[in-house]
Amino acid sequence: MKNAIAAGLGVLLIAASVVAKEPVPAPTQVEFLNSGKVYPAGVPLSEAVRVGDTLYLSGQIGIQPGTLKLVPGGLKEEAAQTLNNIRTTLEAHGYSMRDVIKCTVMLADISQWGDFNEIYKAHFSAPYPARSALGASGLALGAKVEVECIAVHSSDTKR
After folding, report:
1. Would the N or C end of the chain have less CB density within 10 A of its end CB?
2. Secondary structure of 62-104 as H, E, C letters
3. pLDDT of residue 27
4. What's the pTM?
5. Alpha-helical regions (H) of the chain
6. Is 131 exposed, middle or buried (CB count within 10 Å of its CB: 0-12, 13-18, 19+)?
7. Is the pLDDT of residue 134 over 60?
8. Cross-strand pairs, 2
């Protein structure tokens, strides 16, 4: 019995020393980011949140940078400004449009999907990010389109 207990303790000590030699993972750092290049001061959101190498962008609409005024002209003009705002936000935090891996598109009128795609293809190239789309009954500030994105800054991204 004493030999069995001693052997069991020996195994536990060996296991503990092996576990102790394994590196302890660093805690994941979460950064809440605001560059001031798109949203005006005082809006109740972070323009992006970085967790490791992944950047989560808040939804962007076609506002003129530094204001809460939509660009005039309709869906195509708003879509172009929205995607320019996304580019500005990405670049402010060291990312690019090529780092975008997923977009969620919200359209006030889903029948304008084709018009949105024309603008979208001018800002992204193949292979395109994964994407979801939905029609919405209302968007912030009466916008016609809102887009949120996830980007990963990695040398392993094959695009």
Report:
1. N
2. CECCCCCCECCCCHHHHHHHHHHHHHHHHHHCCCCHHHEEEEE
3. 74
4. 0.81
5. 2-21, 75-92, 113-123
6. middle
7. yes
8. none
Residue tagged 């060996």 (tokens): 14
| Domain boundary assignment for the chain | 28-152
- Closest by CA to 55, choosing from 149, 126, 158, is 149
Q: At what angle do helices 113-123 and 75-92 cross, to 10 degrees?
A: 30
Tokens of 67: 């204001």
What pLDDT, in 10s, does the model give residues 61-96?
A: 999 999 999 999 999 999 999 999 999 999 999 999
Residue 39 and residue 52: Cα distance in Å, rounded?
23
d(C-alpha 53, C-alpha 6), whole Å: 47
- Please identify which residue in the block is written with the tokens 């560059």: 35
- Return the SS3 of 136: coil
- d(CA 69, CA 84) in angstroms, rounded, equals 15
Task: Domain 28-152: give its CATH superfamily.
Answer: RutC-like (3.30.1330.40)
Pick the residue with more confidence: 65 or 6?
65
Which amino acid, one-letter code, is at 90?
L
